[in-house]
Amino acid sequence: MGVIGALAAGLLFGIGLILSGMIDPAKVQNFLDIAGAWDPSLAFVMAGAIGVAAPGFWLVRKRAAPLADTQFHVPPAGAPIDRRLLLGAGVFGIGWGLAGFCPGPALASLPLAAPATLVFVAAMVAAIAAGAGQQSRK
Fold first, then answer.
1. Cβ-contact 62, 54 below 8 angstroms
2. What average pLDDT is seen over the chain?
């Protein structure tokens, strides 16, 4: 059930990314370019996602445990904003702005095998491995 549920959720998410245009780096970069050729259409995608996710989070909070795990994995209330969080957010934002990709759309774009996508995903995998290696040394 867990693997099939994850596959179904991933496919639904990927289809949503494709239909919304988030796998097009130019569209994402135009959304981020508020002083130039700004394209506000992704704001509607985000608003729609929040509109769907918010009731889902509200419903999930009423459950004792998730369907496919023994516990929820959420940051504790009042978790500090530390160096690691700020560094990760900064790297994410810089990568999103420069490449026009974040991890989900980059993976959904892999079948197109565009060189920029392949470089981005390789760099993303290297960064994840470096972060995991740094985390294991703690």
1. no
2. 87
Q: Over the Cα atoms of the chain, what is R_g?
A: 17
Quote the CA–CA distance of 128 and 138 in Å, as a whole number.
16
CB distance 82 to 10 below 8 Å: no
Rounded Cα distance, 104 and 107, in Å: 5
pLDDT tens for each residue of 32-88: 888 988 999 888 888 998 998 899 888 888 888 887 788 888 888 888 999 888 988
Q: Are 41 and 21 in contact (CB under 8 A)?
A: yes
- Contact indicator for 66, 56 with CB cutoff of 8 Å: no
Phi first, then psi, for residue 29 (nearest 5°) are -65, -35
